[in-house]
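[Automated response] Your request has been received and processed.

Submitted sequence:
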Amino acid sequence: MKSSTFLVPLLGLSLSACAMKEGDFPSLAKRPYEDIPAIPDIDTTQPALMEALPPVLKNAVDKAVQQSDTAHESFLQRLPGVKKSVSAARGSAPASESWVVAQVQLSALEMNRSPSVSALADLDSLYMKRLDEEFSGEEKGAAILIARSREKVEAQVSRQQREIDQLISGMR
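Generated structure:
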């Protein structure tokens, strides 16, 4: 009997919510703004990219690439002789004549690669400067063109470093 005492008023209250007038609630129909996308479409068309570097920039890039090419060619020409010297010095005492000759030739080989490293630094500087300019609104595309030349020089410098690392490990 006690449960029915509470149950009857509770049912009465719950049914009274269904008996409210129609105008008291907002309409569930779509609002006009619900048809507009929340995130507007982004323009995905690419702006026209520069096809060739401006003459001053092209000259600077070409100069750096030529500098690296020349140094890399010289490096490759000296490499076989240095490899022979390092091979002859393998296992010898650090003050022996063959060891000293190999060290001197290895140092000269490292000097041969310094123009390539310098050219890579120049290209890095040109690339970063151009990226800043393009970010500030300059015509786009030059940084990509510089990056292509930079990749070539970076590959030369990386190969040179691998060769020198192998030679140094051969001296031990």
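Summary generated for your ticket: The radius of gyration is 37 Å. The mean pLDDT is 84.
If you did not submit this request, please reply to this message.
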